[in-house]
Specification:
Layout: E1 11-13, H1 15-22, H2 26-41, E2 45-46, E3 51-55, E4 58-70, E5 76-84, E6 96-104, E7 110-115, H3 117-137, E8 145-149, H4 153-164, E9 171-175, H5 179-191, E10 197-200, H6 204-209, E11 213-216, E12 236-239, E13 257-259
Parallel strand pairs: 1-7, 8-9, 8-11, 9-10, 11-12, 12-13
Antiparallel strand pairs: 2-4, 3-4, 4-5, 5-6, 6-7
Helix pairs in contact: 1-3, 2-3, 3-4
Amino acid sequence: MSQPTAVPPFAVISGAQVQTALQHREKQITDLVEATYRLHAMGDSVNPPSYFLRFPDRPNSRIIALPASIGGQVRVDGLKWISSFPDNVAAGIPRASAVLILNDHDTGYPFACLESSIISASRTAAMAALAADRLGRARPERPSRVGFFGTGLIARYIHTFLAGTGWSFDEIGVHDLSADSAAGFAGYLKQTGTPGRVAVHDGPEELIRSSDMVVFATIAAKPHVTDPSWLGHNPLVLHVSLRDLAPRSSSPRPTSWTTSSTA
C-alpha cells in the first residue's frame, strides 16, 4: 500500500536571504532563465494571462497577478504578486515590491512565500543579458558602447548581469528624466570600478545615436521615442520597459529587439 502524500512545510524567505542566495551568480541565473524558456517552448509550462489590478483614485499605480506552472525537474506552481507605485520614488522608497508564492506540484499546498522584487529584477536582467548574447552574435561586431535610458533598479541589475556574463564596454552612456537619478547611476558605475568611460547625456537623441546597444528601462506611461532616424545606425535594442518606443520608431534597417515587462 502506498504511503500517503505528505503536506510540505511552509517557509517565509526574506529579501536579505534572497539577495544572499542570488548574489554573484549572474551566469548561473542566466543559464536557468534560458532553460526555463526552452521548457516553455517545448510546452512544459502553463502561463495564463496576467491580471492587472488598477485603481480609479491612483491611475498610475497597479498590482499584477502572474500565475504560472513549470515542469521539467523543478515541477512547481506559483504566483507572483507585484506592485508598481511610481509615486513611491518621491518618498524615497522603491517603486516596485513583490512576493512570490510557490505551491507543491503534487498536493497544491503552498510551501514558500519569498520576497520577490529581487527575484523579478534578476529574471528581467538575466533575460536581457541572454538576449544581448544571442542577438549580439548575429552582428559583424560586438557592441562596445551601451546606453542606459532609465537609471533605476532594473538598469543597475541589467548592468550587473551584462558584466557577470562577460560583457565589457568602451563607453557607458546614461540618460534619465531625473538628473539626480542619472548622476546617481553614473556615480554607482564609477564606484564599482566599471571599465570604460561613463558619460551622462542631457537628451535621449544624443544617448541613442552614440550607442551600439540601447537599454530602455523606464516607467514611461506612453511612447516617447518617435523618430526612426535616431535608430538609423541599427543599434541592438533591449526594451525591458513597457511603452518607450512608438510603433513608427523602428529602424529603417533591421534592428534587434527584446521586450519584457518590469512591472
